[in-house]
Amino acid sequence: MTVGIELGLAEGGAPALLDLEELLATRLLVQGNSGCGKSHLLRRLLERSAPWVQQAVIDPEGDFTSLAERFGHLVIDAAAHTEAELTLAGDRARRHRVSVVLDLEGLDQDGQLRRAAAFLNGLFDAPREHWTPLLVVVDEAQLFAPSGAVEVAEDARRAALGAMTNLMCRGRKRGLAGVIATQRLAKLAKNVAAEASNFLMGRTFLDIDMARAADLLGMERRQAEMFRDLARGHFMALGPALSRRPLAVRVGAVETESRGAGPSLTPLPEVPLADARAVILAAPPPEAPRPPRRIPAAPPPDILAQLAAARPAAPAEAPPPLDPEALAAHQRRLEAVMRAVLAEEDSAYRPVPVLYQDFLVRCRIQALSGPPPDLGAFRRMLAVGKAAVPEEVAAQPEWAEAQALAAPLPEDLQGVFLLLAAAALAGAPCPGDAAIARAYGTRSVGRARRALGFIEEAGLVVCRPNAAGRRIVAVVGVGWETAAGDVEA
Predict the structure, then answer these.
(1) Is 300 inside any structural domain?
(2) Is 307 exposed, middle or buried, given 0-12, 13-18 or 19+ CB atoms closer than 10 A?
(3) Are both 463 and 488 inside the same structural domain?
(4) Whether residues 362 and 415 fall in one domain
(5) N or C: which end of the chain has fewer CB within 10 A?
(6) Which residues form the AAA+ ATPase domain (predicted)?
(7) How far apart are the C-alpha atoms of 77 and 106, rounded to whole Å?
(8) Distance between CA 234 and CA 10 in Å, rounded?
């Protein structure tokens, strides 16, 4: 079944149709200067496709929250949730096929990048059985996939760029159809923009942007000047889901209102303000608190914690301390539960909060005594578990030194380092890119290589090829070195 979404009118007054099924396979890029009607176009597309396909909107300014009233979208206030909660929310949205709007208004740029990346990763890492079609619309995409350096933390920029790259480059097989809008193509990362096969180009004034728009539409450079003459709401369309030749499109009306509409002229007061200097420059009241930008909502209650609290209260007396043998036995049981969690299919690629909940449930089933590990301790156990360290290596006294070296690294990189350290300590061949990717929690060998490069830049390992081109990794400061290993293994 072919579903045609009417965007508006084409030349000659004929309906301008967008093939929704073709869009799901080929992705869409919308470009135009501020005020050209990009958000209006995205709203028209979302409204007309809402009955046919699940949608997820990354909304940096809160413009699309009005979709909830008319079409039932779930609005998620990103400022009120942690990154782990948003990753879990993305996973659950795919499982239950709920259309959502991620409202990033009220966050600084660093917070917007981190939370958008977490939510996109939750959508991307959903289990295979939930890879149903999902239209992912990202407004102001140049914020989340910048082409150069920006004034945010480097790890936040990398996280957002990686999530956007996954969406546009690898999302198709997972049912994710990226629709990205940007003010300038020059500000958008090339590897993100290059994956779109459909284009809607609006009013553009800079020469470099007009030239790139003309190139993308297959037009001659002398025709690029026409982008300056496009009116608000008018776009040039091209792509397998739109038209095989450049087609002028005028976007139609929408049913919902935008919170980001441009301001209109308002008359000035007829009577000037008396003593304006005294009013405007008056001293602030003493100890006047600065109002917060937004008060985060309280996190939802943890169902497992409620169930635990409902149990009969234990005696007030403190439990006797466990002897070393009992502590060791308890640790072995926790490690056995961790191995059972990681034995599940695709467990290495599931979000950490999902794995943690699975781990807690299994601990209760096993009736393990004592409080379970907190999330931080669980992440450290997970890093060791993903590294699949052999028992004989973990039993060596030098292994404690390897764990100490891994401690300063981000938690998602500790498993990669421990995998390499275990191989070096045992003198085994260097793990291949696929094994490093699994320890990193991804299927992308490219991300695995970047993770290895990050650890090398941190000064913990040194990578070098042997005469046959196989990789050798040495751990800095302790003298351990792997045997030569095939990166494709």
Answers:
(1) no
(2) exposed
(3) yes
(4) no
(5) N
(6) 24-311
(7) 9
(8) 10
- How many domains is the chain built from? 3
Own/partner pairs for 46-50, CB < 8 Å, 24+ apart?
Answer: 46/71, 46/135, 46/137, 47/71, 47/254, 47/255, 47/256, 48/5, 48/6, 48/7, 49/3, 49/5, 49/20, 49/135, 50/99
Mean pLDDT within 125-142: 91
The tally of CA atoms less than 13 A away on the side-chain side of residue 458 is: 18
Domain containing 418 equals 388-489
Structure tokens at 210: 């007009």
Question: Within this chain, do residues 434 and 359 fall inside the same structural domain, yes or no?
Answer: no
What does the block give as tokens for 487?
């990166």
- Kindly report, residue by residue over 80-114, the tens digit of the pLDDT: 899 999 999 999 999 999 999 999 988 888 899 99
Q: What is the DSSP string of 213-273?
A: HHHHTT--GGGGGGGGGPPTTEEEEEETTTEEEEEEEEE---SS--TTPPP---PPPSSPP
Asked if residue 471 is part of any domain, the answer here is: yes
Are residues 166 and 18 both part of a single domain? yes
Q: Which of 134-148, 261-275, 362-376, 391-405 has the highest mean pLDDT?
A: 134-148
Query: Mean of the pLDDT values across residues 123-139?
Result: 91
Residues 6+ apart with CB under 8 A from 173: 131
- Give domain status of residue 447, yes or no: yes
Question: For the whole model, what pTM was predicted?
Answer: 0.55
Given a cut of 90, whether residue 261 has pLDDT beyond it is: no
Q: Write the CB contacts of 62 (distance below 8 Å, at least 6 apart in sequence).
A: 103, 104, 105, 106, 259, 260
Query: Does 271 fall in a domain?
Result: no
Written as one string, the DSSP assignment of 326-361 is HHHHHHHHHHHHHHHHHTSTTGGGS-HHHHHHHHHH
pLDDT at position 353, please? Answer: 78
Residue 64 per-residue DSSP state: T
